[in-house]
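Deliverable D5.2: sample structural annotation.
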Amino acid sequence: MNPSVILPELILLTVTFVVLMVSACTRDSGARISMWLSQLGLIAALLAVAAQIGAGGGVWFDGLFVNDPLSIVLKLTILLLSLMVLVYSRAYLSARGILRGEYLALLLFAVQGTMIMASAHHLLSIYLGLELLSLSLYAMVAMQRDSKAASEAAAKYFVLGAIASGMLLYGMSIIYGVTGTLAVDRIAGVLAGGEVPLVLSLFGTVFMVAGVAFKLGAAPFHMWLPDVYHGAPTAVTLFLGTVPKLAAYAMAVRILADALGGLAQDWNAVIVVLALLSVAVGNVIAIAQSNIKRMLAYSAISHIGYLLLGVAAGNSAGFAGALFYMIVYALMSAGAFGMVVLMGADGTERDALDDFRGLSARSPYYALLMLVLMFSMAGVPPFAGFWAKWFVLREVVGAGLPWVAVTAVVFSVIGAYYYLRVVRLMYFDEGEGEPVSPGAGEHWTLSLNTAAVLALGLVPGSLMLVCLAALGA
């Protein structure tokens, strides 16, 4: 056993307990100290993961934990995004009295859950990581106690999340009953042998796919997502819209590709249906929204549909395209929600689309950043969002599903309307409001966030090569 493979997780666990102790032992200065400790902990964990690059992988702890290129790429992205979330959220949380040690500890626990899922090589460790993430998120959504919307969102999220976890666990139990193991590689080996009851295997697969679809927010398992995004504090929505999506992608790869790859011909059709439903529902309903958080929630559903198209391709290149899409989407979502967070950093929520009217007149620089993010989300070339869709749809066509690609393109064109509507409000409408005036840390984080989206649009091949290497394609 090599303890260094779990050093990033151990660092975060240690920092989490230190944050809780600092919060319990201090009063006025505790929140500020806890915030700095949390950021330093994420940076230390990020460096620990980076040190594992090229060190060789392996399966550890009796098959529970894997250290491979995919887990390293996911962890680096997760930690970087989590650090960005904290920087974006400082003023917002402080203005609402949520910047407390308990909140930061919950966020760090959630990050640890995502990292466990990224390295999970066993259905048990997948489920444990998922529950650590989910339970932390339920509490984070309800953290603003004086908000009725947040309480309602947390209750809905908890109930539906519990149902989805039950479905996933039931599917896992069926697969265990059929194969006699919970280890991902052993499940794949047993299924490849063809000596298991096909009907029971498919039954378990359907329940597991439903659980994965819920965690991703794919239609028709999306009913929780718009209400939770809207009701939660925007800083929590920022985290919800980025980091957990990468964990859900990791779960999809470990379950569908690594464990149930032998049943790909059977689950492929289900994934195609979920993908097209998500693309259609997300893009069409987003048009009718007047709140940008709800609009971005339905946008997230459509983006998950495009990600699932990469999964539906059923090969390593398709999963690599989906990983590229997931990373690019997480960066775009972080920037867009980060902008909404900064606009409401003074304690007043400004999440209506009308709040963006005339933004170019009072804050031209931040309007320009939002324009880049909206164009990228719409898939306008040469921004990163265009290449994300291109890589996925190329694999879909290569898999013999051109009609699926054409359908996705049609809905992508429809979906461009609501992104361009934000641009129209900023540049062609007049409005009143305060200029966006974040601190230096928030300013540079949003600037670098948007620059990364621009850079990936200009040189997408470098990240795609990393994704292909991570998936062994």
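Annotation notes: Residues 3-470 form one domain. Residues 3 and 62 are 14 Å apart (CA to CA).
The annotation will be released with the project's public dataset once the embargo ends.
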